[in-house]
Amino acid sequence: MSSSSAWAIEQQSRKAFADLKVVCLAGGVGGAKLADGLARALAGDQLTIIGNTGDDFTHCGLQICPDLDTVMYTLAGVANVETGWGRQGESWTTLAEMTRLGGPDWFRLGDLDLATHLTRTHWLAQGKTLTAATAHLCAQLDVHPALLPMSDQPAPTLLETDEGVLPFQDWFVRRRWQPIVQRVILPADVKATPLVMRALSRADIVILAPSNPFVSIDPILNVYPIREMVADLPQLVVAVSPIIAGTAVKGPAAKMMPEMGFANSAAAIADYYADLIDLFVYDQKDAGILLANDPHQLCTNTLMTSPAERERLARDILQTAVQLLQETS
Amino acid sequence: MSSSSAWAIEQQSRKAFADLKVVCLAGGVGGAKLADGLARALAGDQLTIIGNTGDDFTHCGLQICPDLDTVMYTLAGVANVETGWGRQGESWTTLAEMTRLGGPDWFRLGDLDLATHLTRTHWLAQGKTLTAATAHLCAQLDVHPALLPMSDQPAPTLLETDEGVLPFQDWFVRRRWQPIVQRVILPADVKATPLVMRALSRADIVILAPSNPFVSIDPILNVYPIREMVADLPQLVVAVSPIIAGTAVKGPAAKMMPEMGFANSAAAIADYYADLIDLFVYDQKDAGILLANDPHQLCTNTLMTSPAERERLARDILQTAVQLLQETS
User: Fold this and answer.
1) Which of A235, B36, B314, B329 is the most exposed place for a label (fewest CB within 10 A)?
2) What domain range includes position B299?
């Protein structure tokens, strides 16, 4: 297609999406990629990303928010695409010296990444909320969509495993998510922030990113009243499967499905979210699967192997969603 | 002198000092240099350094102990000799990124230095004492004399200045010790550790290093029962003047003397410590000064411009001290 006709289509789709308010619930890598695609397809004030903070932890005195950082770095164009975490062009001077000093080196603190943790911890120590600290970091990194932590309260996810109850990062990083998960323990009485509630109140579409349902999306939905608002308010709720042909692009989702008593398939993901969603998006490798609760479907390439592919998937989802909204209005 | 005769002299002086137990009370640069000289003249188990922790502070979540680190880095041979703080061969990747992120950059966190702060903070968070964390860091850096924090309790030094009461690092680093000091405020009820008390109990000689008397040595003496033990127990107490011909080699000592109501001279330092000391060491540039309370005197080159000069000064002090001990026994 000529670039002028590509431009014309882009203008048209921008116009089609111009009034949409979209909220994306996102964990780490998969969530970050879809959030980036949405950020490319929408104006900054149309998109809000609600990030999982269930895997946040304190390490060497630093407040570390791995999922928020993955989303922030991805939106800022400074994420390390190979590893799926941390910064591109990272160096490891401090970590090498920590190893020499006998300090903990199981969590890979890069020199650039450290600046984020130190700056965030400083602001939290000054009394700023995590929401404010995240907004400040995003502003400095020229990230325009609102990236909101699900809560300003600590909300640590714990894993009940065959090796006992483990804090999230102990299981995920230190033990490389190998212990078998019997149950995910989410904290009671965690409250969403006013900005999260305002974003959900205004949203036309809520998208559950292709993140791990148990340790990325559930921890967000567990924060009161996010699940209730997602269930009742938006015109359309979309879920994107993190499972493609029985595997996860990144992380433990595929390993966890059978551990948690589910089939390891996109259909099982659709089933898991059945009460919430109107539209289910899954990969073309799974074409022909049967979805039990019969939501609307979009079967497409969901791999997002490049920024252009992130944007293409986001536009496909938004276009399908807009059509559904028009049909039902 | 031939190296074999140098070796003979060293063996002789090692023998002369072989049974001595020496404790050195040390602040930052001057204390670190003398401690290093003493470490070169004595076996590791003969020397204990009690470090000032009055300038410790929490920054971006990290527990930072500037004086302990200066002593530790100097003894390990990894100190930055030009700046008087931090590591040699330091890099600044994280700090540059913190500046970009709008984080606090007034306290210069080097990449190597950060490893110390992170590792220490980790161990403190694990429940280790500052004494244990310091011992662990020293072991990893092959530092053999015992370096003991004066206390495991926080003991922050405050400065009452013409700009109000300031925490130590705010005055010292952020405001480059420019506000005029009216009074140094030391905390009440801080207790020394058992290891500090054992070292003072065993000491033949206690040396007050050429550190700032108001903000380096006084904070140590202020910790109960360090002043009482120094006054009553050791056979000999030595002070080395941080003032040479009315100037301080490093830091605010010379500026503070008149601010605190004293003459800016080595003699005033001797006077300040008069109740405690038996031997006063001062620089040859001040030869001929009159000392009011008539302690024993050693007038020599105290500048310590090289490791060899640090050791030479240490040996001069020890030799004079041993002579005095022999005369009085």
Assistant:
1) B329
2) 3-56+144-328
| Pairing mode, strands A22-26 and A205-208 | parallel
Q: What angle do CA B16, B21, B26 make, to 5 degrees?
A: 115
| DSSP state letter for A224 | B
Minimum Cα–Cα distance from B90: chain A residue: A93
Q: How far is B158 from chain A (nearest CA, A)?
A: 20
Residue A323 placed within a domain: yes
> What SS3 state is found at A93?
helix
Residue A264 belongs to some domain of the structure = yes
Cβ contact, residue pair A101, B119, below 8 Å: yes
Nearest residue in B to A134, CA atom? B101
C-alpha to C-alpha distance for A196 and A87, rounded to whole angstroms: 27
CATH number, residue B198:
3.40.50.10680
Residue with tokens 């590509």: A6
User: What DSSP designation does B248 have?
Assistant: E
Side chain identity, residue B261: G
Partners of A59 on chain B (C-beta within 8 Å) are 122
Residue of chain B whose Cα is closest to the Cα of A63: B61
Residue A217, min C-alpha distance to chain B (Å): 29
Structural domain contains residue A81: no
Q: A88: distance to nearest CA of chain B, Å?
A: 13
Interfacial A residues in 190-229 facing B (CB < 8 Å): none
pTM of the model: 0.92
**List of chain A residues whose C-beta atoms are within 8 Å of the C-beta of residue B137:** 101
Prediction ipTM score: 0.90
Give the pLDDT confidence of B252-289 residue by residue, as tens digits.
999 999 999 999 999 999 999 999 999 999 999 999 88
The total number of structural domains in chain A stands at 1
Q: Which helix (H) or strand (E) holds B300?
A: strand B296-300
Question: Among residues B37, B38, B71, B43, which one has the least CA distance to residue B310?
Answer: B37
Instruction: Assign residue A89 a region (left: φ > 0; alpha: ψ between -120 and 50; beta: otherwise).
Output: left
Tokens representing B163?
């700009």
Does some domain include residue B295? yes
Cis, peptide link before residue A225, omega less than 30° from 0: yes
What is the number of other CB atoms lying within 10 angstroms of the CB of residue A268? 20
Residue from A59, A93, A121, A126 to probe the interface with B (highest B Cβ count within 10 Å): A93
Q: How do the pLDDT tens digits run along chain A, 329 residues long?
A: 345 555 555 555 556 788 899 999 999 899 999 999 999 999 989 999 999 999 999 999 999 999 999 999 999 999 998 888 899 999 999 999 999 999 999 999 999 999 999 999 999 999 999 999 999 999 999 999 999 999 999 999 999 999 999 999 999 988 889 999 999 999 999 999 999 999 999 999 999 999 999 999 999 999 999 999 999 987 899 999 999 999 988 889 999 999 999 999 999 999 999 999 999 999 999 998 877 767 799 999 999 999 999 999 999 999 999 999 988 77
The reply to whether residue A61 touches residue B121, judged by beta carbons under 8 angstroms, is: yes
